[in-house]
Design a protein that fits this description.
Layout: E1 2-4, E2 10-12, H1 23-53, H2 65-72, H3 77-90, H4 94-101, H5 107-120, H6 128-136, H7 141-155, H8 157-169, E3 172-177, E4 183-188, H9 191-204, H10 216-245, E5 255-261, E6 266-272, E7 280-288, E8 293-301, H11 303-307, E9 320-326, E10 332-337
Parallel strand pairs: 5-7
Antiparallel strand pairs: 1-2, 3-4, 5-6, 7-8, 8-9, 9-10
Helix pairs in contact: 1-3, 1-4, 2-3, 3-5, 5-6, 5-7, 6-7, 7-8, 9-10
Length: 338
């Protein structure tokens, strides 16, 4: 189908209409086409290396080979950079270049091996190239990446650890709300943290039922929300147990602990009805289950004003309110409000 001539010109023979090809024979043709594509990639890389080294791009006014590829071949910045970098490294990797030229491995395989050689430099010696080429002929790029990482762990463990630490330092998570009220989540995690998160989500992403029309992305989003709901439920249950176990005493007034939530009603959790010096204390815990907000305040005022629903006084009766902002970790910070 495709022949690479002495001058590197590639002629793809005219293929018959795919509708006229027997389905049983398409598989063999696909394998042959992919093999030819690998051979073409090898020809591209070898010529690109000479083009880059000889600054052939300057004839068109480009400043670098990457810029020329983006301009003339309409490649993305990332792909152009990868092509140039791999071409420079493959010049010293004979086994990889040979395997790519014969169509036994793909450009992605060659890129992974070239990347490992670039990072290991002088440590990439001995049988490393032969081992990875043999693995590339049997494995897909994802599994070859595992083999490359295993090699790097054996040859340069400190370098792998430094990269892992750098990736961990670059961790970030953004949760933004749009004008329409929806939330957009995006972020980046290190290898270990990402694996932990993926394992937790996969555990909740059970196989969809026959009538489940959700996509994989939607089921993953639902699993993340389920993780958050379970954490909130666990915290809420722990707070309830501590509140039930705490003794109720008289500290100079009546204390009432009430919980309010969107999910349902208001529940009194404990109270002491004694009064002293005409003062009353009321402690309310507000749990907004819909928005995951909690607010706690302790207000002290005159009984008559409390009965009237007043929180502050303009009649000469001092009222001091104390709001407790309770964190999810159980600790409380206090801010006095006058």
């Amino acid at each position: 189908m495709c022949t690479v001539g002495e001058r590197g010109s590639c002629v793809l023979e005219r293929l018959e209409d795919v509708a006229e090809v027997a389905v049983d024979g398409i598989g063999d043709e696909l394998q042959e086409l992919f093999r030819h594509r690998n051979e073409i990639d090898a020809a591209i890389q070898s010529r690109l290396h000479r083009f880059d080294k000889g600054e052939g791009y300057s004839a068109d006014g480009a400043l670098t080979a990457k810029a020329w590829l983006r301009w003339k071949c309409r490649l993305s910045a990332g792909e152009a950079s990868e092509r140039v970098q791999v071409s420079r490294t493959l010049a010293s990797l004979d086994l990889v270049s040979e395997a790519l030229g014969s169509g036994d491995i793909s450009f992605k395989h060659a890129s992974l091996i070239a990347g490992a050689a670039e990072k290991l430099r002088e440590k990439f010696a001995g049988d490393a190239q032969q081992i990875l080429v043999a693995a590339a002929k049997e494995l897909d790029p994802a599994r070859l990446q595992v083999a490359v990482m295993h090699l790097r762990h054996c040859v340069e463990p400190d370098g792998v650890l430094d990269e892992a630490n750098e990736a961990h330092e670059r961790r970030v998570l953004h949760l933004s709300q749009t004008f329409g009220g929806a939330f957009v989540l995006n972020g980046q995690f290190g290898a270990d943290d990402g694996a932990t998160l993926q394992t937790a989500l996969d555990a909740l992403m059970t196989a969809p039922a026959a009538d489940d029309q959700r996509t994989a992305s939607q089921r993953r989003a639902d699993a993340l929300v389920e993780v958050a709901n379970r954490q909130l439920d666990a915290r809420r249950a722990a707070h309830s147990r501590r509140a039930e176990a705490a003794p109720v005493g008289d500290c100079g007034g009546a204390h009432a602990l009430e919980a309010t939530g969107r999910a349902g009603g208001r529940a009194r959790m404990g109270a002491a009805d004694s009064r002293r010096d005409g003062s009353a204390h009321r402690l309310r815990l507000h749990v907004d289950a819909g928005h995951r907000r909690r607010g706690v305040w302790l207000a002290q005022g005159h009984p008559r004003l409390e009965a009237q629903g007043a929180r502050s006084t303009r009649q000469g009766v001092p009222v001091r309110r104390l709001r407790h902002a309770r964190r999810l970790d159980g600790r409380a910070s206090h801010q006095a409000l006058n």
